[in-house]
């Protein structure tokens, strides 16, 4: 059966997102994706060698959408690093809340990959840590944040805020007051960063 639209990786990923939303990650199949595109499942496999590869690609693309918005915040040198750090952490939480609320099936697909230690999950965390490191390095450069190792400090900040970014805590992200709780943690962390090198 001829394809209704040109068959390329983007068309397959878009169709896969819709199939995942409709059926969930446990029931969605490559055959469902092929049927939605009007092609054979073999045609899909020419672009993605396995169901796992397809799931990873669609989840990576889905995660990259929020990553790009966070990258804009991280790179905004017009905003002082301490304020940028707080804004970035709040934006990360808001993005996670939106994903759980608006795209639960794709969030579940991400959870499956994270539990399997997929490179998609590890790359996502590495990218977030890179953004955090850049913010903290900017603060070290202008003297507003004190650290001997921006990357190590970024890992500490990320770990200290795990309740607001790790999917194991997803059920808590919709709790009233979660934003205020994050703000309190941010204040504590920033106080520590301001005074860490003081005698």
TrEMBL record:
GO terms for molecular function: DNA-binding transcription factor activity; transcription cis-regulatory region binding. Residues 29-48 bind DNA. It comes from the Bacteria. Keywords: DNA-binding, Transcription, Transcription regulation. The keyword Cell membrane does not apply. Residues 6-66 form the HTH tetR-type domain. InterPro entries: DNA-bd_HTH_TetR-type_CS (IPR023772), Homeodomain-like_sf (IPR009057), HTH-type_TetR-like_transc_reg (IPR050109), HTH_TetR (IPR001647), Tet_transcr_reg_TetR-rel_C_sf (IPR036271), TetR_C_27 (IPR041478). Pfam families: TetR_C_27, TetR_N. This is TetR family transcriptional regulator. It comes from Nonomuraea rhodomycinica.
């Amino acid at each position: 059966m001829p394809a209704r639209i040109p068959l390329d990786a983007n068309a397959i990923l878009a169709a896969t997102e819709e199939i995942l939303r409709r059926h969930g990650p446990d029931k969605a199949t490559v055959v469902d994706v092929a049927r939605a595109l009007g092609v054979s499942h073999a045609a899909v496999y020419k672009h993605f060698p396995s169901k796992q590869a397809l799931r990873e690609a669609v989840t990576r693309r889905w995660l990259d959408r929020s990553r790009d918005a966070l990258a804009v915040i991280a790179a905004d040198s017009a905003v002082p690093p301490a304020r940028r750090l707080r804004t970035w952490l709040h934006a990360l939480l808001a993005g996670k809340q939106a994903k759980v609320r608006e795209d639960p099936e794709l969030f579940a697909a991400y959870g499956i990959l994270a539990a399997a230690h997929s490179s998609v999950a590890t790359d996502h965390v590495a990218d977030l840590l890179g953004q955090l490191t850049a913010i903290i390095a900017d603060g070290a450069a202008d003297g507003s944040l004190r650290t001997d190792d921006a990357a190590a400090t970024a890992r500490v900040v990320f770990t200290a805020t795990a309740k607001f970014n790790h999917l194991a805590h997803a059920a808590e992200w919709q709790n009233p007051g979660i934003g205020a709780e994050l703000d309190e943690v941010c204040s504590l962390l920033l106080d520590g960063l301001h005074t860490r090198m003081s005698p």
